[in-house]
């Protein structure tokens, strides 16, 4: 885990937050909700604990399923985070909403069984289907 929280924001700067990151491993989610939400796969880094917001006036929360929420800026529309309802510390932060070092690396792709055939990433990563990811969550396995 990185010890110092990183500071992040949406595109317009109306939503500012800080959070320590577990690491700088970037993941991509290819599920249909992430692709529709952001116009492509959701590239993210995992928070080590729930982010702290400077001011949540412009923070929107969309309940996207029985078990998860998506956070966004109500002013500029930036897709910022995905979080688990039952575990507020399980938060995937948009990788480009926070500064990452040159050591950041692309490690994991999830919902690969939902990925359209018209794109692929060149990076070699661990790949998990939706069922594999759900099983990992249920068993408590760390995937990132």
TrEMBL record:
Stored Pfam families: GFA
Alphabetical UniProt keywords: Lyase, Metal-binding, Zinc
CENP-V/GFA domain segment(s): 6-120
Family matches, as PROSITE patterns: CENP_V_GFA (PS51891)
Family from the record: Belongs to the Gfa family.
Protein known as: GFA family protein
Phylogenetic classification of the source organism: Bacteria, Pseudomonadati, Pseudomonadota, Alphaproteobacteria, Maricaulales
């Amino acid at each position: 885990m990185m010890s110092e929280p990183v500071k992040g924001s949406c595109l317009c700067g109306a939503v500012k937050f800080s959070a320590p990151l577990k690491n700088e491993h970037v993941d991509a989610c290819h599920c249909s909700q992430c692709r529709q939400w952001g116009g492509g796969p959701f590239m993210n880094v995992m928070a080590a604990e729930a982010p702290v917001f400077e001011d949540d006036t412009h923070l929107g929360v969309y309940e996207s399923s029985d078990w998860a929420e998506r956070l966004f800026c109500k002013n500029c529309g930036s897709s910022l985070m995905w979080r688990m309802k039952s575990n507020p510390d399980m938060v995937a932060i948009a990788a480009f909403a926070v500064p990452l070092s040159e050591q950041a690396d692309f490690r994991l792709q999830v919902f690969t069984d939902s990925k359209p055939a018209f794109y692929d990433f060149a990076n070699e990563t661990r790949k998990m289907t939706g069922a594999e990811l759900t099983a990992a969550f249920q068993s408590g396995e760390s995937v990132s």
